[in-house]
Amino acid sequence: MVTDIQKILIIGAGGQIGVELTAKLSEMYGSSNVVASDLKNSNAFANNPFETLDALDKKALFEIVKKHGITHIYHLAAMLSATGEQNPMFAWKLNMESLFNVLELAREKHIAGIYWPSSIAVFGPTTPQVGTPQYTVMEPSTVYGISKQAGERWCEWYFKKHNVDVRSLRYPGLIGWKSAPGGGTTDYAVHIFHEALKNGTYECFLSENTILPMMHMEDAIRATIEIMHAPAENIKIRGGYNLSGISFSAKEIAAEIKKHIPDFSITYKPDFRQAIADSWPKSILDKEARADWGWKEKYDLPGLVENMLTNLKSKNEQ
């Protein structure tokens, strides 16, 4: 446990990232110092203080910060890519207004630091798709991506104009076994494990050769904590750092699963999410994250597949 105690509020704690981040930060700071918040409670937060919170309710957010003496906010609440395309106006409202609520708290000196996740969705069809660099063309084609790109610029502006200590990572697709996927285009790479174990078959909503940047959830959680604990002078980018793990196609992950489940079969039926995936990079360059605060991934594809199958099998047997 760390000795420099922070009082942390996690907004959107019930989501795919939030559940695991809450658990990890609770290990580090003690459960009583990590307040989980979401629209509804979950048994995942039995040991944490919990607050029911609509991220758009600025007054309620302020009251929670004051009540618990919050010093740092991890703002994870958002409507993701595939879901956002179904409800674009609300996706924009939720993703942007909730960010402003948190940035304003920091500008007014009620909190000391913010973590806000960005995404590879900030890139678009005109971005170089292989080895996408930190600085490049960014013309996102989804409401989610547009909101993340705008959010990056606002985070940078609040840092430059008001010295708000906000830090951000451009997450690739995240693959974890502890919580359900949250409505993203890369979620096939989580569903596929559940279906492989349950039914021995999976119908993929992307084509077999669709390559996307991915990352094991453990690596993503570690990267989040590492960037938040890096010295402020090491954080040179205040919009969002490129973050790279592994890139693979649907066909490649299926082949790796078959090594463990020989009878597993997969079919492909691309839907509207295919166009979203086609607009995103196939691989990411993240030399800035590696140079500035020492980022390095742990999992390759074989390691990720083995870890996911082992843990999901164990979880299903409980």
Characterization of this structure:
By secondary structure, the protein is an alpha/beta fold. The protein folds into two domains: 8-173 and 215-242, Rossmann fold (3-Layer(aba) Sandwich); 177-213 and 245-281 and 300-313, Alpha-Beta Complex (UDP-galactose 4-epimerase, domain 1). The chain is 42% helix and 15% strand. It is built from eleven helices and 14 strands. It has a six-stranded parallel sheet with strand order 3-2-1-4-5-7, sandwiched between helices. It has a three-stranded parallel sheet with strand order 6-8-12. The radius of gyration is 19 Å and the shape is globular.
Describe the structure concisely for a colleague:
With 318 residues, the protein is of the alpha/beta class. The chain is built from eleven helices and 14 strands. The protein has a six-stranded parallel β-sheet, sandwiched between helices.
List the helices and strands and how they pair.
Blueprint: E1 8-11, H1 16-29, E2 34-38, E3 50-52, H2 58-68, E4 72-75, H3 81-86, H4 88-107, E5 113-115, E6 118-119, H5 143-162, E7 166-167, E8 169-171, E9 173-175, H6 188-198, E10 201-204, E11 211-216, H7 217-229, E12 241-242, E13 246-249, H8 250-258, E14 265-268, H9 273-278, H10 287-293, H11 301-317
Helix pairs in contact: 1-7, 4-5, 6-8
